[in-house]
Automatic annotation (TrEMBL):
Keywords: ATP-binding, Kinase, Nucleotide-binding, Pyruvate, Transferase. This is Hydroxypyruvate reductase. Residues 246-265 are annotated as: Disordered. It holds the Pfam family MOFRL. Residues 17-249 form the MOFRL-associated domain. Residues 246-259 have a biased composition (Basic and acidic residues). It comes from the Archaea. GO terms for molecular function: ATP binding; glycerate kinase activity. Gene3D superfamilies: Glycerate kinase, MOFRL-like N-terminal domain, MOFRL domain.
Length: 446
């Protein structure tokens, strides 16, 4: 799971942090999660707590998109067997499948292949009838991987706007409010295209709070955001879109275009959503590993947001407090958190919230008895090719340069030169950030 583990496992505390990270990622692997959620006995298909009778439908099609879509497709192919009629998913992590077409798109900026794949997904949905069961596989990254820009807006314009939004410091809720109103598939529009088919969505959450309307921009669930909301986001972050995008949003705000479908839309009368895994799934697995290593685990929150470097200061302060006063927990302990922090690019670097979190946290802590680790569970932190980093204060041998790297949003070179980055490669899953602070050292020396 961690390619450079041997280099990183400097102490038992480091080993514990790495084991927690690996366990969290493994617990949210799509193949594992899907296999646990799905079962079939004859015509009875079980999805979590729900049962669907396949004999009620003339055809069964699979659509979807996200970083985990191909792995999810592999499992559902095995479960459905010859009951599967057709399918197409879009992902940036392709896998070999037998009957479901896998289109390789791009993340975080959409590309032409993703647009073509999204059109194929929409076409299958459009062809669905009341006799069709549509199984929609949704995971993190689906917003970028299923672009389907509306008429009058080019993919190039959408790409440019996406880049501006991602570097602005806007939250995923804000970014997706914009993307929903520039796409033919997001914000419940896939469900509208499939109606009157029965739609069951199988979802791996990558958003804080698990709001299904935000995950992959909610293609199969109601959307309460508006054109006005989208315009407000662009104004708030001083983003100037292309003329075509500005006109589209302005016309929608003026009532000249229909809003995305809301909860009372008949498109959702035959839809159901199944949340299969989320950030807390990863935290719970990491908690179990910490206990096995003789540490007292504390899950601080699965919903941490905000600037990465600032969130790190709070985490480090809690770790130092535990060492000084045994509050809120007596060491040896492992502090865990999840969610999604952001980086507002003020410098010339490429950001990387998990790497910024680690560097800021290690700089903030006053003790070498605190090991700070943080990764993006998809294996790619910001624009870098690593998942995150792990460090303690002793690893930071040039604090002036470290602080300069933080100021420039360019922490990767500093961390990489010191062998502190965590390399997992693409993990096939995405449930946002997983942060581990090991406080003190356990007597367990495994």
């Amino acid at each position: 799971m961690i390619r450079n583990r041997e280099e990183l496992a400097k102490t038992p505390a480091h080993e514990t942090a790495l084991d927690c990270i690996a366990a969290g990622i493994e617990a949210t692997q799509p193949t594992r999660v899907m296999s646990e959620a799905l079962d079939r006995d004859g015509s009875a298909l079980t999805i979590g707590d729900a049962t669907v009778d396949l004999d009620d439908y003339g055809e069964v099609v699979v659509v979807g998109g996200g970083k985990a879509a191909a792995q999810m497709a592999n499992v559902i192919e095995d479960v459905l067997g010859d009951r599967l009629t057709d399918g197409v998913v879009v992902t940036n992590d392709p896998q070999e499948t037998d009957r479901i077409a896998v289109v390789e798109g791009s993340h975080p900026t959409p590309n032409e292949a993703g647009e073509e794949g999204a059109r194929r997904v929409l076409s299958l949905a459009d062809d669905a009838t009341a006799e069709t069961l549509v199984l929609c596989l949704i995971s993190g990254g689906g917003s970028a991987l299923l672009p389907a820009p509306v008429d009058g807006v080019s993919l190039a314009e959408l790409q440019s706007l996406t880049d501006d939004l991602l570097s602005s410091g806007a939250t995923i809720h804000e970014i997706n409010a914009v993307r929903k109103h520039l796409s033919a598939i997001k914000g419940g529009q896939l469900a509208a295209a499939a109606a009157p088919a029965t739609v069951h969505s199988l979802v791996l959450s990558d958003v804080v709070g698990d709001d299904p309307s935000i995950i992959a921009s909610g293609p199969t669930v109601p959307d309460e955001s508006t054109y006005a909301d989208a315009r407000d986001v662009l104004d708030r972050y001083d983003i100037q879109p292309s003329a075509a995008i500005e006109e589209r949003l302005e016309n929608g705000d003026d009532g000249e275009r229909s809003e995305t479908p809301t909860a009372n839309d008949p498109a959702f009368e035959r839809t159901e959503l199944h949340m299969l895994a989320n950030g807390f799934t990863a935290l719970a697995a990491a908690r179990s590993v910490a206990e096995e290593h003789g540490y007292t685990p504390v899950i601080l929150s699965s919903q941490v947001e905000g600037e990465a470097r600032e969130a790190a200061k709070t985490h480090a302060a809690i770790a130092d407090e535990a060492l000084a006063t045994e509050n809120p927990v007596s060491p040896p302990a492992v502090l865990l958190s999840g969610g999604e922090t952001t980086v507002t690019l003020d410098g010339d670097g490429s950001g990387g919230p998990n790497q910024e979190f680690v560097l800021s946290g290690a700089l903030t802590s006053t003790s070498a008895d605190v090991v700070v680790a943080s990764v993006d569970t998809d294996g790619k932190d910001g624009a870098s090719d690593v998942a995150g980093a792990i460090a303690d204060r002793d690893a930071l041998d040039d604090e002036r340069r470290a602080r300069a790297a933080l100021a420039a949003n360019d922490v990767y070179p500093y961390l990489a030169e010191r062998g502190l980055v965590v390399d997992t490669g693409k993990t096939g899953t995405n449930v946002n950030d997983l942060r581990v602070l090991v406080v003190g050292e356990s007597d367990d020396t495994r």
